[in-house]
Amino acid sequence: MDRRELLTTLAGGTAALSVADPHIGRAAPAGTNAAAGSALERDGLKFWSETSLKRVYPNSEPGSAEPLTLVSARNAQLSFQSCFRSVGDRTFRIRAEVEAPKGWSVQVRRVGYVPMQQLDTDVPLDEIDGVGHVPGLVPDPLYPETTADVGPASNGAFWITLKVPVDASVGRHEVAVTVSCVDEYRFTSWQGAKPWSVTLPVVVDVKPLVLKPRTDFPVTHWLSADSIWEYYKIEPFSERFWELADAYIADLTAHNLNVVYSPIFNARHEILERPA
Predict the structure, then answer these.
(1) What share of residues in the chain are helix, strand, coil (percent, to 5)?
(2) Does residue 158 contact residue 178 with C-beta atoms inside 8 Å?
(3) pLDDT for 192-232, tens place per residue?
(4) Which helix or strand (DSSP H or E) is residue 150 part of?
(5) pTM score
(6) Which residues make Cβ contacts (< 8 Å) with residue 164, sequence separation at least 6?
(7) Chain-centroid distance, C-alpha 210
């Protein structure tokens, strides 16, 4: 029995116990479908926008530069991507800046890539993402950087997060993403090229709904303190450790975790020469 058959069997058993909400999982956020149109192209670069639901691999086909429309409640957070590709043999240095309505919080991060050796086993290929790209590099870490280098025949992306305030006005709001080429690399150095920019428009349709703060719903994550000093090769509980620990906890709380479980004594049943 493969994974699809197993899930089908489980779903059939669950259906006998309860009736599912017919709306759950059916409505996708606006902008998730590919818009009619192509990427914006200029001087060896292509630019386009993507939602947060599509992974952009180093060799993904460019999408559309037409305005990306997103739907949001008030007091909510949403993300999207601004993407770029070098279509020739040059390396470019790209910078992103975002202009949002007054009072909105904006965070720009560079999408990094990590190696992935294979696709998941026992998952039907028509249900899996990354076919044709894996084995290979996949987008995963988000770096707190607003500048990225993109090499020949390759993609890059910025992950842009918006926080819509509780008192945001209802209706359509324009967000302008300015993506600039600040320099280009040719053998054997950066050229000091004259910067130029393009704009990728985004529209956020804010609805009257106001999201209330979550209560009585703990979201927990394990934080292994010893793994921090082991990975960074630093002294336990040194000044550098506390700087890194603060950054780790800030990242957890930014992902809406409100409980961080970090045991003083890490009791293990097996014997480890070094921390996990």
Answers:
(1) 15, 40, 45
(2) no
(3) 999 999 999 999 999 999 999 889 999 998 888 888 988 99
(4) strand 147-150
(5) 0.80
(6) 72, 73, 74, 75, 76, 77, 78, 104, 204, 206
(7) 24
Q: What are phi and psi of 51, to 5 degrees?
A: -75, 180
The residue length of the chain stands at: 276
Q: How confident is the model over 127-163, as pLDDT tens digits?
A: 999 999 999 999 999 999 999 999 999 999 999 999 9
Cβ burial of 98 (10 Å; 0-12, 13-18, 19+) is buried
Residue 61 CA, chain-centre distance (Å), reads 18
Burial class from Cβ neighbours inside 10 Å (0-12, 13-18, 19+) for residue 88 reads exposed
CB 139 within 8 A of CB 56: yes
